[in-house]
Write a structure and sequence with these properties.
Elements: E1 3-8, E2 13-20, E3 27-29, E4 32-34, H1 45-67, E5 76-82, H2 86-103, E6 107-111, H3 112-124, E7 130-134, E8 139-145, E9 148-154, H4 160-170, H5 179-187, E10 200-201, E11 204-205, H6 208-219, H7 229-255, E12 260-263, H8 270-273, E13 277-278, H9 284-296
Parallel strand pairs: 1-5, 5-6, 7-12, 12-13
Antiparallel strand pairs: 1-2, 2-3, 2-4, 7-8, 8-9, 10-11
Helix pairs in contact: 1-2, 3-9, 4-5, 4-6, 5-7
Length: 323
């Protein structure tokens, strides 16, 4: 039996998970703590890193306690190498190097998106799905081929999660539990669909024009009472998801696939789940599971190479554990 402890801290969610390759449920523990800022504000790298430094060792202790394990029972350590926000990523890398030296354990650096994909595949038992990766910093349509997760389409400007977060700030929605969740609750009260820019270029999408338009409407028509905030939430939600569904269905047809796996925080939207089924939300267990797969095929990261990169593309990681 192999046991791996993983640390995820690429954005505002900090998680420590412990997984094993034995049994029906691989997750032994998976505590998480989220950095939440006041309404109308986002989370800055320095402040997010301070949050992670404050809570990370407590989460490591909690994960070990919940799993009923001690450091000697851990076979390897995994951490998010990227992509993500630089300062928060550095906290995870520093702690994982320290634990490696204290506990004498090998380290595996994990691509954040691949962590999402592999945990999603494990929990849903989807063998070879098309992957829709939608998060604060990433929007990609992905399929596996020849030892890589190939990107069939992506955003050409800003990510879907970033679009929704910035829109939520414009209309003053709370960040608790997340801007996207609160947009969805507000959208449920919307009654009128407002036509917004729908930009699909082949397999790629663009959200910058959409964000500019809803920002303009929020500062003019909503304030003047011509449209409601609820109608605007409903309209941006439906427009964005229609764009994502179109490109994903095109990838399914091209690759002759029947399954779709949604990963990333935006997959938390139940409106998107109505179209697909997904596994989402950043957590430590997904990093631990991807680390376990890499560890089992001999992929170890040297201590001096345990750095981070904010731009770690999904297709840059070789996938040695799949046929």
């Amino acid at each position: 039996m192999v046991v791996v402890l993983g640390i995820e801290g690429s954005a505002n969610k900090l998680g420590v998970g412990i997984v094993t390759d034995k049994g029906e449920d691989p997750i032994l523990s998976n505590p998480r703590h989220t950095y939440i800022t006041p309404p109308g504000t986002g989370f800055l790298p320095r402040e997010t890193a301070e949050h992670h430094r404050k809570h990370i060792m407590g989460l490591v202790t909690e994960a070990l306690k919940e799993a009923k394990l001690e450091p000697k029972d851990i076979d390897a350590l995994a951490y998010t190498k990227g992509p993500g926000m630089g300062a928060p990523l550095q906290v995870g890398a520093l702690v994982i190097r320290t634990l490696s030296l204290l506990w004498n354990k090998p380290i595996v650096g994990v691509n954040h998106c691949i962590g999402h994909i592999e945990m999603g595949r494990r929990l849903t038992e989807a063998k070879d799905p098309i992957v829709l990766y939608v998060s604060g910093g990433n929007t990609q349509v992905i399929a596996y081929s020849l030892k890589r997760y190939r990107i069939f389409g992506e955003t050409i400007d800003i990510a879907v999660g970033n679009t929704l977060d910035r829109f939520a700030r414009v209309i003053g929605l709370s960040n608790d539990p997340s801007p996207g969740y609160n947009i969805e609750q507000c959208a449920k009260k919307g009654k009128k669909f407002i036509e917004l820019p729908f930009v699909v270029k082949g397999m790629d999408v663009s959200f910058s024009g959409l964000l500019a338009k809803v920002t303009e409407l929020a500062r003019t028509d909503v304030k003047e009472g011509k449209i409601t905030k609820e109608d605007l939430c409903f309209s941006i939600q439906e427009t964005i998801f229609a764009m994502l569904v179109e490109t994903t269905e095109r990838a399914m047809a091209h690759c002759d696939k029947n399954d779709v796996l949604i990963v990333g925080g935006v997959g938390y939207f139940s409106k998107l789940w109505e179209r697909f089924t997904g596994y989402c939300i950043d957590n430590g267990a997904m990093i631990a599971w991807a680390g376990l797969l890499m560890y089992n095929c001999g992929s170890i990261t040297k201590l001096e190479d345990c750095t981070v990169t904010q731009r770690f593309r999904t297709d840059a990681q070789e996938v040695n554990w799949r046929d």
